[in-house]
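Need tokens for this chain, all 113 residues.
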Amino acid sequence: MLNLIQTLRMEATQKSRHKKTQIQSGDILSITTTQYKNKKRKQNLKGICIGIKKRIGYTTIQLRNFIGGVSQEQSFILESPIINNIEIIGKIKGNTKAKKYYLRTKSPSENKV
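Here are the structure tokens for all 113 residues:
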């Protein structure tokens, strides 16, 4: 049973398309996605990565940004086919916590990208 779990983990890490990018909590990211509603169009999203959840088959990140004075959080699965490109723009200053959930209580001027 243990060997099966180890082989599944190795296969999942080899399949990861974005394993070259070393994304950490607190990074400012720019993600390009493809939307397939009526037409195929690309959308560029920017935000602060406030959390990363690593599972056996996939990795999920949470982005937070203020758009038009309203806070917005989005979750993305890194292995999803709708994600075209992930670019690390910068890093926020401050605490070295693993999860940046304290940014939810901060003012919009401190969280704006």
